[in-house]
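Show me any protein, fold above all:
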Amino acid sequence: MTYIPNTENDLQRMLESFGVSDFEDLLRNIPASLRYRHDLNIPQALPEHELIKHLDEISRDNKKYDACFAGAGAYDHFIPSVIGHLISRPEFMTAYTPYQPEVSQGTLQSIYEFQSMVSSLNGLPVTNASMYDGASALAEAVLLASRHTKRGEILIAATVNPYYIQTIRTYISGTDLNITIIPAANGQLDYKQLRSSLNDKIAALIIQSPNFLGLIENVDDIAGDVRNCGGLLVFAYDPISLGILKTPGDYGADIACADGQPLGLPLAYGGPYVGLFSARQDLIRKIPGRLVAKTDDINGEIGYVLTLQTREQHIRREKATSNICTNQQLCALVTAVYMAVMGKAGIKRVAELCLSKAHYAAEKICDLPGYKLKFDTPFFKEFVVQTPVSPKKIINGLAKYNILPGVDLSGFKIGLKGCLMIAVTEKVTKKQIDELVFRLSKVK
């Protein structure tokens, strides 16, 4: 039901059920200083058919871009049509938290398949039922590393997504954990600075590759250095990139986290998305959230169950690994369907197209006067361009042609003022790239 009108009698009965006589009485516990006392300027109520028409007229003001080159953690990948058909089945859309395995076998199996495919993708043996998004997954990894090592110093590469770093800071506020940001050199983690910062108090190093700027980090020697000091290597990754790049497991990562948005989820104005969280086998009892396992029932038939439920709902609070009450099951199902439909060969092909199209775009853009690549290190599907005019002017100028040319890095306060970050996915055509280059050449 999209429209639920309430009569005055309905409202009064609801208030009475709370033990209050009017709406103001309901708000009495909110301090006056926090009340919004200005006129909200809400228009008069409309009949349902008029309201729907009015909202439709407002929605037409939304800008629809023909070509999206924005990224910075959320990407405009192609979504196979089969995903929408499968996840809209009522048994998936209405599924609740699967506490009762005897009535939740379908939901439990879909979670199990999701876990299995994510582990196959990133090379780590244990994956949980999902997290809220990539940022919260990485923050939970920090807490796990601290619990496991019983240490309080966290090193984070400056090239990790700034939003992820902000989320980590929020998660650890009120704790004794300390964060040190390891600076970047030419768009990558400064390895000399890292090695001088490693000591026996370090719980974890957080690194992202491809990093926030789209560059591929040189991770080969890092895992050994971190392990030698007794810390954990926490690796944030782009799941599509693993179609052609080494996996976190190949690098010897202890924990791997990602946002699953590239695996079939629409941009959707920033969410909801799904967090991928994987770890090595001996950390399994410290993983936050929930795990689904496969077993045999009393009749010898395959069954799926929640297992190792180290959450506040199941054990003493002081023993819990997190207070996460749920997982992003419908979004996780989307990524599972995407991985099943695409398969290893399909994800590899998507990654290859992203790589080749991004490099084609970078080459053509840098042929324009005044445009140049900011960094000369390898990149995957995203790259940073120094522009001859302000990125804000470029973004506003190309909007009239229904092109979203990228992300202005000036607002991130990472020393990249006057730089535009451009993401190119398999969905973008050569014609659209050429149109982007042509329009860039006309911005003065």
